[in-house]
Amino acid sequence: MAGFRAMIMVAVLGGATALAGCTATKDAAQSTTSAQAPQENLALTVSPADRASGVPISAEIGIKLGSGTVDGVDVRDAAGQKIAGELRSDASAWVPTAPLKYAQRYTATVTAVGSRTHHESKSVAFTTMKQPSQVEGVGFYLFDGQEYGVGMPIPIEFVRDVPANLRAAVQKRFFVTSDPPQPGAWHWFSPTQVQYRPAAYWQPGTKLTVRLGLKGQALGGGYYGEEDKIARVRIAKDKVEVKVTNHPKQMQVFKNGTLIKTMPVSLGKASTPSSSGHMVVMEQAYTYRFDTRGEPNGGYVVDVNYAQRLTWGGEFIHSAPWSVSDQGYTNVSHGCVNIGPGNAAYLFTVMKVGTPVTVSGTEVKLAPGNGWTVWDMDWPTFLKGSAVPVASDVANAVAYEPYPKPKPSPTVAPSTSPGTAGNAQLGTPTPSAS
Hints:
Number of strands: 29
Oligomer: single chain
Radius of gyration: 30 Å
CATH architecture of the largest domain: Beta Barrel
Strand order of the largest sheet: 22-21-20-28-23-29
Distance between the termini: 63 Å
């Protein structure tokens, strides 16, 4: 959001009125002067409507202008106390810093200025809704003051489905500020799951402030948001990435683009294969209990150390002392990435929640939404999941490409050696020795 001087570029039409004849009377001259400098009409409209009642406490002060720019917004409660807030970057609305209060009267005054320094103001008074009987919270996976890896998305999870016709209004109440600024967007993976990512990995050291302004926001089924949530977090100063391959069965750890460690792994066996795709660490636990009783191919209970979750389906990187002899050679796990105890402990010193992890070469593809899968689709596909039209600068941002297309092979000139003229076929591979 920008300050009160955010500009809206508009075309202002004006001009002198032509008069018939060569001689003008005094009245005609006065009419000409008036026609040359008409009173500017900024066509300012403000919402909510004047005297509206039952207004949601998540409401913003909507602003429309035919011409000119917003010069100021003043919102006060019934006691005359000024309410803090900011304009959206496109000056389409003024957003209160905190939700309004239930069953309270407010007055909003918007002032606009035109190209001839003409000012126009409009005031509206409105009353907010009573406190609803049905409210619910949302799952928010950023925690104030924490530090995350460069691939950390902003995942939000709802208790019940958000109807399609409400998703745009809900999404508009998510506010993300990054320092330094980076373009990003939201993607609805399901009616209950929406995630945000920047176009490319966060720059190391980025500071993030995220506000979910959902208190009093309609979520569907007669339910409203219970509270606003805010988190101020930091991205780690080093870019750490992890790449796991099935052929060979190994893990590589990169720090700021440099390979710093390689270790053997054992992945999921044929009946319970690991997922191939671009994931991030979702949680870390020094000790984690796997209880698979009642699950297909499960039925066991075991405690593991140095566990790092990759999917909702239960795929982790973790210490597996029982499979050390298989690591690097044979896949024996139930879908997890097995590593030795020493290597597992080492990973806890360099990885964080939000560290990107890519697994490749296995029998199955990562399912969208099975974890924080924002990096497993290209940018245009990701943008299609937004409930709100995406700005052109965001759509055209330089983005991370999870599955880059191979570069075309150089064109080979046809051979002119004796006996082969006319038989060369461009693009046909040369048979290799068996």
